[in-house]
Amino acid sequence: MALKTSLLVNLLMFLVLTSVVSAIIKPRLSVIPRTRSKTSITTTTTSKKDDRKTFYYTQTLDHFNYRPDSFTTFQQKYIINSRYWGGANTSSPIFVYLGAEAPIEEDVDSILDDYAPIFNALLVYIEHRYYGESVPFGSWKEAYSNTTTLGYFNSAQALADYAELIVNLKHNLTAETSPVVVVGGSYGGMLASWFRLKYPHIAMGALASSAPILNIDDIIPEDYYPIIVSKDFEEVSKTCYDTIQQSWSIIDSHEKNGLPFLTQKFKTCNPLNSSSELKDFLEGKYCEAAQYDYDLPPLANPVNRICDAIDELPKGTDVLTRIAAGVVAYIGEQSCYDIDTYNNSTDQSSLGCKDTYGVSFTPRPHWTATEFGGHNIKLVLQKFGSNIIFSNGLKDPYSGGGILENLSDSLVALTTTNGSHCLDIQPAIWLVGQQASEVKIMKGWITDYNTMLRKENSGQGGVVASSHIWLTVIVMSLSFAKPMQVLQILLF
């Protein structure tokens, strides 16, 4: 295989029902690549930003206990775009984007913009606790200071945050009967699917984009991610694939006396301490390129760019020169290259890492499956789950941990052969087929919901009217009846 099979592709388990954070994955579960410029993949305009209003909800710290500190609160940030909303007195839905492991602004610029006018929907974007401005205990430093404060940093609490905020928001908007669809990408897609299962009375449907919900508890082979990365590169160019494969042993051959040579060859900002540092850096870049293999400027189709640079050098060019050319083609020409891209000490996910604090206990590795399910998922979910779209692009390495076939008539899997990570919920003109399918399915959910709502209201109205009639008859009868007759009427 072209890539090291020991790739750390475990999910951010600190978010998934654990109290501490495991090692940072490379790359992270994110809707967009965190190490590339956001300006390269956003079409935000000033007018779009003007449509948004930012609010803060006084959120409960601990939804599941009654300790004194459980009632502590923090300010949770959320953003609303009401430009296209039909209003509370219509059948227009509310689309709620569940923020994941990043400040909410990093995902809000383009996510769901195309869906709002189609549905006349209200768009709501909620920031995940412990990210951005939604940090408990007053500051990042305090919130991430020890395992006690980090104990409230998990997915169950985050889902309860969303539930409480959505209920409160609908009440304030007098929109208690408006249908809600939750949407998320990557880890946020996992949250969206779990939210629909845990809170079906709040969300009548969920769109889970690139959500690797099977990547837990050894449900699938651990090496699925690097296998798909390797496949992506091999399909683009077999010679590129072979060159990358050859490079690992060559890099290792410089471990003893050649680290200064590697430092100079790859222009690393700091001297290399081991060959594995360089391999980890390269591995992360190859994975990121495969995961976010978007056709978006200025770094469109990164896998092709890397392989073109590797393959197009003159015949006889040595392997490491080709590999270095691939790095430049992907990242761009720089004075030096930071090999610690994925270990940013100021990143909020990194701040939560257990290695930082040397905690002595391990997250509960099996609890996620116990809490949310995963084993025998088709057999289980088709019995009690409904109204979830699992969408995946098959070039995305995380698709190997996702749902790729229908589980039931309303638990639908949509896939695109050339799609990448979370591409369906971003502006992607060529992905119209998959997006059109999502729109059609969600329109069906909303139509069914509003039909049932009308029937329910009509039925209740009939019952209420009938009750009023009988009450009137009884009162009138009582006013003219003798005591014994009154008793007979009441018993009747």
From TrEMBL:
Superkingdom of this protein's organism: Eukaryota
GO terms classed as biological process: proteolysis
Keyword vocabulary terms for this entry: Carboxypeptidase, Glycoprotein, Hydrolase, Protease, Signal
Molecular-function GO terms, alphabetical: carboxypeptidase activity; dipeptidyl-peptidase activity; serine-type exopeptidase activity
Segments traversing the membrane: none
InterPro entries cross-referenced by the UniProt entry: AB_hydrolase_fold, Peptidase_S28
Span of the signal peptide: 1-23
Record-stated family: Belongs to the peptidase S28 family.
Protein name: Lysosomal pro-x carboxypeptidase
Organism: Thalictrum thalictroides
